[in-house]
Amino acid sequence: MPRALSNGMELEYDTFGAPDRPALLLIMGLGTQMTAWHPRFCQALADRGFHVVRYDNRDCGLSTFLDGCPSPDIRAVLAGDTSTVPYGIADMARDAAGLLDALGIDAAHVVGASMGGMIAQQLAIDHPSRVRSLCSIMSTTGDRSVGRATPEAMAALVAPPPRDRREAGERGVRSFSVIGSPGHPVPPEELRERAEAAYDRSPRTDGFARQYAAILASPDRTPHLRAVTAPALVVHGADDPLVDRSGGEATAAAIPGAELLVIPGMGHDLPEPLWPLLADAVARNAARADDRVTAPAPADTGADTGADGTGHGG
User: Fold this and answer.
1) How far is CA 242 from CA 1, 69, 149, 150, 245, in A?
2) Are 218 and 142 within 8 A, CB to CB?
3) Which residues contact 164 (CB under 8 A, 6 or more apart)?
4) Three-class HEC string of the chain
5) 110: β partners
6) Which band of pLDDT confidence, cut at 50, 70 and 90, is reported for residue 92?
7) What pLDDT does 292 receive?
8) What is the pLDDT, as a whole number, of residue 303?
């Protein structure tokens, strides 16, 4: 797979679909490699008319690891001391913008899952001209009062990293038995194979704490999300134990005109039976951006609609 230099990082990426189609950027979550965007799901998006780009975030997969940075003090971060945090979500959003630059893409439809949703939101806030449409999946705003994990899900998230391939497979089975979609359970042998394949591709886990610290240290995005103008879709599982659905509801409530899709039986994963639904929803949201370009501009009546805009659907 190719690599691109972005914001001082080398980011591993690959693509699906014709390069002359509208770009769609996929951003994955905490400690999770780009391969969690399954190739068949990526192809389903490409079949809907997109040039799909997925990539490894910094400190994950085959992208740059910040080896020179000490491990952040998570307890101190939780107490408000961010002095050991090497970067934030805004830095990871700059990585995404830099990847678009490296690929010669002026603007893309952006889809992020979990922490990737946070990065996608920040990209829309800090680099609005780069985001044609925004889709935030199983994510939250950064407001600590929403999107909270159950104790069991949090324990699965922060479980000790695997020491070898066998432990990686076992951890994958245990974790997704807790956070996965109860309405669409994945057989344990498939979960094990996925986790082992990810370990084979990149066994490194030392970037996890730095990414987690970035989440904890980054400010609440809610006030800034109110200024996002890109067509937005917020997708959340009704049964997500890692990021409670209140995180998705708060995200949709913050973005003017956002659509909220809550899916029964969905947890904190992207189960294959939901791929057609998700791909169609992403395509519909992207079409809203195209409609904005082709629709005639409304007449200026001189009325002030307010800072929050109108038509909030979340």
Assistant:
1) 31, 27, 4, 6, 9
2) yes
3) none
4) CCEEEECCEEEEEEEECCCCCCEEEEECCCCCCHHHCCHHHHHHHHHCCCEEEEECCCCCCCCCCCCCCCCCCHHHHHCCCCCCCCCCHHHHHHHHHHHHHHCCCCCEEEEEECHHHHHHHHHHHHCHHHEEEEEEECCCCCCCCCCCCCHHHHHHHCCCCCCCHHHHHHHHHHHHHHHCCCCCCCCHHHHHHHHHHHHHHCCCCCCHHHHHHHHHHCCCCHHHHCCCCCCEEEEEECCCCCCCHHHHHHHHHHCCCCEEEEECCCCCCCCHHHHHHHHHHHHHHHHHHHHHHHCCCCCCCCCCCCCCCCCCEC
5) 25, 134
6) very high
7) 73
8) 32
Mean pLDDT of the chain: 93
